[in-house]
Design goal:
This protein has 348 residues and is α/β, with parallel strands linked by helices. Helix content is 27%, strand content 24%. Strands 3, 4, 5, 6, 7, 16 and 17 form a seven-stranded mixed beta sheet that branches. Strands 10-9-8-11-12-13 form a six-stranded parallel beta sheet, with helices on both faces. A two-stranded antiparallel sheet has the order 1-2. It is globular. This is Enoyl reductase (ER) domain-containing protein. Keywords: Oxidoreductase. InterPro entries: ADH-like_C, ADH-like_N, ER, GroES-like_sf, NAD(P)-bd_dom_sf, Trans-enoyl_RdTase-like. Pfam families: ADH_N (PF08240), ADH_zinc_N (PF00107).
Length: 348
């Protein structure tokens, strides 16, 4: 089969004679892939250079099922979700290939009327929203929304993850403050953002603190670099009091925000499959509780998606199949993608 493989740091090639995956074991499902989506993590793994198959986001058709699959999937079902490309422990498995294997709990049925291209844009973003906002930051769930007003800052609202974060925070009853470049203001407002600030302004953190009367206690940072942690720290309240936690969550590891005053949380996605992962020089042990959480979270996501309660990010659907993916990763790294999710059709 075809697959996009890391050859050396910064170099990826389409290999055409990769062995097909074996029959799935346990609660794993083999997916014939029809569409994939790019994530910043993909080019970062490529730059690190660990020989493996790239790709996290996939959508396709169930080709085969392990003997312990219990959630009702059957051969021929249309699904989307994630697999751990770039994993040294499973170097032949990744989304940027004709077939990939992943666990049943990180796959979601594609509702009738939704395309592979639309669905594939959501896997990593929906996972990250669940792990970052609901598991780590302990926000109220969309099916049990807040009854009292509470504000949350979502930094990077026009990113693929930020766009989903805005919608889920609104479903959970929060008043959403977000940031993005000025050309994306109308877009994030269409997603439900209540207040929008310019992410490129050096005063935005302080401006938000003034706007919120120094009362903001929740910030979720979907960028995690280029000054966003410091800006989130400036936006969060300076009033530290027992019983009123101040929380900052991010998806990129870095220096803590106002350590000792703010509860810092990090979600990386590595742990959600519940299996050992070795990637980018890190060994991450299996965390079954994280997998159990995402299984429960994706059940709710399936219902909300089917009922039209949220929409996926804007799409940048590109031609070129597997060969196009390599060019797309270069564009993503160079910052040539803004306010859209890059998607490729790779099967028919």
């Amino acid at each position: 089969m075809k697959a996009v493989k890391i050859i050396s740091p910064g170099e990826a090639k389409v290999i055409t004679d990769v062995p097909n995956p074996p029959r799935p074991s346990s609660d794993n499902i083999l997916v014939k892939i029809f569409a994939i989506a790019l994530n910043p993590h993909d080019w970062k793994e490529l730059d690190y250079g660990e020989p493996s198959t790239l790709g996290l986001d996939l959508a396709g058709i169930v080709e085969d099922l392990g003997p312990d699959v219990t959630n009702g999937f059957k051969k021929g079902d249309r699904v989307f979700g994630i697999t751990h490309g770039g994993n040294k422990l499973r170097p032949h498995n990744g989304a940027f290939s004709e077939y990939a294997t992943t666990r049943e709990g990180v796959l979601i049925p594609i509702p009738e009327g939704k395309s592979f291209e639309e669905a594939v844009s959501g896997g990593i973003g929906l996972l990250t929203v669940g792990q970052g906002m609901y598991q780590e930051m302990a926000l109220s769930w969309p099916n049990a929304p807040l009854k009292e007003k509470q504000q949350i800052l979502i930094w990077g609202g026009s990113s693929a993850t930020g766009a989903l974060g805005i919608q889920f925070a609104k479903l959970s009853g929060y008043e959403v403050i977000t940031t993005c470049s000025t050309n994306n203001f109308d877009y994030v407002k269409s997603l439900g953002a209540d207040h929008v600030f310019d992410s490129r302004s050096p005063s935005t953190g302080n401006d938000i603190r003034v706007f919120t009367n120094n009362q903001l206690r929740l910030a979720w940072d979907t960028i995690g670099e280029h000054g966003s942690p410091e800006s989130c720290g400036a936006a969060l309240t300076s009033e530290v009091s027992e019983g009123k936690p101040i929380r900052y969550g991010t998806i990129v590891g870095g220096n803590p925000v106002r350590e000792g005053e703010v509860i810092n949380t990090l979600s990386t996605g590595y742990t959600v499959v519940g299996e050992d992962v070795e990637a980018m020089g890190r060994k991450i042990p299996a965390m079954p509780k994280h997998y159990d959480f995402i299984k429960e979270w994706f059940v709710l996501v399936e219902q909300l998606y089917r009922d039209g309660k949220f929409k996926m990010h804007r799409l940048d659907v590109r031609q070129g199949g597997f060969e196009g993916i390599v060019k797309g990763l270069q564009d993503l790294k160079a910052g040539k993608v803004s306010g859209a999710k890059v998607v490729y059709r790779v099967g028919s």
